[in-house]
Automatic annotation (TrEMBL):
GO molecular function list: deaminase activity
One GO cellular component term noted in the UniProt record for this chain: cytosol
Lineage: Bacteria, Pseudomonadati, Bacteroidota, Flavobacteriia, Flavobacteriales
Classification via PANTHER family: 2-IMINOBUTANOATE/2-IMINOPROPANOATE DEAMINASE RIDA, 2-IMINOBUTANOATE_2-IMINOPROPANOATE DEAMINASE
NCBIfam families (UniProt xref): Rid family detoxifying hydrolase
Similarity annotation: Belongs to the RutC family.
Organism: Lutibacter oricola
InterPro entries: RidA, RutC-like_sf, YjgF/YER057c/UK114
The protein, known as: 2-iminobutanoate/2-iminopropanoate deaminase
Keywords carried by this UniProt record: Coiled coil
Length: 126
């Protein structure tokens, strides 16, 4: 059985999907982009600020499911320019313990929703 996870502390979905689905002990999040949930505005001042907003959105979704980044077992990062990888990775890495960090892939793509620079999704287990 699946449980829908939604929180007002992360951006509302902009299409026919939910922020996350919990099935059993496994949480599957939708990709998060840098929308500030309080204002609905994109945070695009710098790639580091953009990535921080993405991670804070994921943090809010995880919290709604009573989880943290320590529960994350897999993440997927989509970026529009591989030249920004080191800055994205620096921010992303600050949310994880290096010894227990999840598996991950990072992929450069042609475009992302709303033409943002980074989108991240995670899978977490209680």
């Amino acid at each position: 059985m699946k449980k829908i996870i939604n929180t007002s502390n992360a951006p509302a979905p902009i299409g026919p999907y939910n922020q996350a689905i919990l099935t059993g002990n496994t949480l599957y999040t939708s990709g998060q982009i840098a929308i500030n949930p309080a204002t609905g505005e994109l945070v695009l001042n710098s790639i580091k600020e953009e990535t921080t907003q993405v991670m804070e959105n994921l943090k809010a979704v995880l919290a709604e499911a009573e989880m943290t980044f320590e529960n994350v077992i897999k993440s997927s990062i989509f970026i529009s320019d591989m030249n920004t990888f080191s800055e994205i990775n620096e921010v992303y890495g600050s949310y994880f313990n290096a010894e227990t960090a999840p598996a991950r892939e990072t992929v450069e793509v042609a475009n992302l929703p709303k033409f943002v620079n980074v989108e991240i999704s995670v899978i977490a287990i209680k």
